[in-house]
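Q&A FORM
Asked by: J.P.
Topic: structure of Gluconokinase

PROVIDED:
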Amino acid sequence: LGWKFYDADDYHSPENKKKMAEGIPLNDEDRIPWLCALHDILRREDSSRENAVLACSALKKMYRHVLVSGAAAIESNQPEQPGKNAPLKILFVHLDGPIDVIAGRLAKRRGHFMPPELLKSQFDTLEPPSAPEHFITVSLEKSLPEIVLEIEHAIFQG
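REPLIED BY: S.T.
REPLY: Here is the structure written out as tokens.
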């Protein structure tokens, strides 16, 4: 696509990385500042009229809402500023697959702070996207070229 790519894992705080490395799942309190920082990155790209891809485990509907709307998604008493707080237009790609397929891929990953043992906690937390969220679901059991084509089609064909 020629778009900037961001891996959300690169933006976790040292405390979050340490917690996960110790096998402790993150909670909402851990994730919200991280998601707000990711929203700020996406907002900056949008303000520059740039497209970007963000790889992120936005497991809950609320997390995806923070990516779209930033801190305003959780701070209901924050005054609206016309134009500035307009929600971002984000297509969420829910890569869906059986836990054993994902576990097999995690087992091959080296040097990452999140141990494979935390995968179950992510499945337990997962709230798959649903209407009215702007999303597509793509099976991880497809080949990589098929996955990429399906995502590209959704982006460019609407």
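FOLLOW-UP: The chain has a mean pLDDT of 88.
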